[in-house]
Amino acid sequence: METEIKEFRCSVCGIKSQHTIVTKIQAKGAPDMDLRPPEPHRSTMEYWVMECPECGYCNGSIETPLDTDKSYLDGREYKTLGGLETGNPLVSKFVRKALVCLKNRDYAEAIQSYLYGAWVCDDAEDTETAKECRTEALSIMDNSTVIDDDNFYLLRADLLRRNGQFEKVISDYGERFFKVPLMLLASQYQVKLAGKKDDSVHKMSEIPSVKYE
Ligand SMILES: [Zn+2]
């Protein structure tokens, strides 16, 4: 993996600051069922979100405009992470990014951001906060048209299963058809795991008849 330190100008406060970005990475092997990438990509999450040291704006790039009143960053919701309690600075950044994406009506990116927060919690063995992050992602899915996209509908199965909602996985996915064969196999595997009340992380390569290099 190669990284580079670059200067970015915050779209909110206009102040420049330096951030490390990943310029080259090679991942090999199978992702998890929620598409969390394998190593070395897996361990680069700290570079997936920027925080302006001046005004606290968080996004994938602080040069991305904030599509709401700038005072939102000083408000209670942003400061208190929408009520999610964590002492982990990286989880805080992902949650703040998710809140910003919600304000920007970028629901897909907001869901991904909560998912990234959940992954950081998984690594820190903070199951409680991981569950909260997945619950937030599920709530955005169920209240936006993002869910009409098969990729998100399939991701939802993993979020539900990891949060212990096994009956919902079985009822919503037991008879669900996906046009893409790999997605159908993944969905059926989620139902099988849910039947065993398995809420742990699993890899795409475990799905019968699926091969990864
Ligand atoms: Zn700023």
Task: Please sum up the structure shown.
Helices cover 41% and strands 10% of the residues. With 213 residues, it is mainly alpha-helical. The protein has a two-stranded antiparallel ribbon with strand order 1-2.
Oligomer: single chain
Q: How do the strands of the widest beta sheet line up side by side?
A: 1-2
Following the backbone from N to C, one meets helices and strands in this order, namely EEEEHHHHHHH
Tell me which ligands are bound: zinc ion
Q: How can the largest sheet be summarized?
A: 2 strands, antiparallel
Low confidence ranges: none
Structure write-up:
The chain has 213 residues and is mainly α. The protein has a domain at 2-146. It has 7 helices and 4 strands; from the N terminus they run ββββααααααα. The chain has a two-stranded antiparallel sheet with strand order 1-2. A two-stranded antiparallel ribbon has the order 3-4. The longest helix has 17 residues, at 107-123. The model has no long low-confidence stretch (mean pLDDT 96). Residues 10, 12-13, 15, 52, 54-55, 57 line the site of zinc ion.
Any key phrases for this structure?
mainly alpha, 4 strands, two-stranded antiparallel sheet, 213 residues
Provide the fold topology.
Elements lengths: L1 E8 L6 E9 L25 E2 L6 E2 L16 H4 L9 H15 L3 H17 L3 H16 L7 H13 L3 H8 L7 H15 L18
Antiparallel strand pairs: 1-2, 3-4
Helix pairs in contact: 2-3, 3-4, 4-5, 5-6, 5-7, 6-7
